[in-house]
Specification:
Layout: H1 10-64, E1 70-72, E2 75-77, E3 80-83, E4 86-91, E5 106-113, E6 118-124, E7 128-129, E8 136-142, E9 144-152, E10 156-157, H2 170-173, E11 179-186, E12 189-196
Parallel strand pairs: 1-7
Antiparallel strand pairs: 1-2, 3-4, 4-5, 5-6, 6-8, 9-10, 9-11, 11-12
Family: Belongs to the GSP J family.
Keywords: Cell inner membrane, Cell membrane, Membrane, Methylation, Transmembrane, Transmembrane helix
Main location: membrane
Length: 211
C-alpha cells in the first residue's frame, strides 16, 4: 500500500517563520551590540591617544624649560609666569637643521578656553617680542572641563613668581620652581600630572634676545 506524501501544514510553516524571525532579531541585536562596542572602544582609544599625546608634549616642554627671561615690548618677563590662570615659560630645544637663523629658544603658553573646553598650546618663536607677535596655536587637548596649574617649590603654589622673588632683579626673575602640577578633567575623568623641572641650573648662553 503506497502512502501519500505529506507536506508542511500551515501551522508548522507559521511556527518555522516565527522561530526564524526570533533568531534573526536576536542575531541583529548581537551584531548591533558588537558594532556599538567596537565604536565605543575606538572612541576610548582616540581619547587615550589624545591624552598620551598631550602628556608627552607637556613632558617635553617641562624638560626644556630654562631660566631665561623674555623681553616682551621692553618689559622683562620672568622665566616662568603663573598668574590668574595664565601659564607661560621660556624653553630651549629648538633645532635649526636648515640654518635659517631660528632662535634656539622660544616662549610657550598653555591657554585653557572653558567655553570651547579646549586646551591650547601657543608658541612664540622668539623670547624677544614686540607685543604684537602672533603665536603658532595648536589644540593640545579637547573635551577638557577643568584645567588648573600649580607650581611646586617644594610646597604647592598657585602663583609664580612668589613673594620671595624680587621682581626688580633680573637675576631673580630667572628663578624656576622645582616642578609643576597639572590637574585636569577630561570626559568627567580627573587626572593629576606632576613634572619635575630639570633645567633649573641651565647656564645662560650669550644670547642678547634674552636680556
Amino acid at each position: 500500500m503506497i502512502k501519500a506524501k505529506r507536506g508542511f501544514t500551515l501551522v508548522e510553516l507559521l511556527v518555522a517563520i516565527a522561530i526564524f524571525a526570533v533568531l534573526s532579531a536576536l542575531g541583529w541585536k548581537v551584531f548591533d551590540y558588537l558594532v556599538k562596542v567596537k565604536d565605543r572602544n575606538q572612541w576610548h582609544e582616540q581619547q587615550l591617544e589624545g591624552l598620551q599625546s598631550a602628556y608627552q608634549q607637556i613632558l617635553r616642554d617641562s624638560i626644556q624649560i630654562v631660566p631665561l627671561t623674555a623681553n616682551i615690548n621692553n618689559d622683562i618677563q620672568p622665566a616662568l609666569v603663573l598668574q590668574n590662570g595664565r601659564f607661560n615659560f621660556s624653553k630651549t630645544g629648538v633645532t635649526d637643521p636648515l640654518q635659517q637663523g631660528i632662535a634656539p629658544t622660544e616662549r610657550i603658553e598653555y591657554q585653557y578656553r572653558a567655553d570651547e573646553q579646549k586646551l591650547y598650546r601657543l608658541k612664540y618663536a622668539n623670547l624677544h617680542q614686540s607685543g604684537q607677535d602672533q603665536p603658532v596655536s595648536s589644540i593640545l587637548l579637547d573635551n577638557v572641563s577643568q584645567f588648573q596649574v600649580s607650581v611646586l617649590n617644594p610646597q604647592e603654589l598657585s602663583n609664580w613668581p612668589d613673594g620671595s622673588i624680587d621682581l626688580n632683579d633680573d637675576q631673580q626673575k630667572r628663578k624656576l620652581p622645582k616642578g609643576i602640577k597639572i590637574n585636569l578633567t577630561v570626559q568627567d575623568v580627573q587626572y593629576e600630572w606632576i613634572f619635575s623641572l630639570l633645567n633649573t641650573d641651565f647656564l645662560k648662553s650669550d644670547n642678547k634676545t634674552t636680556s
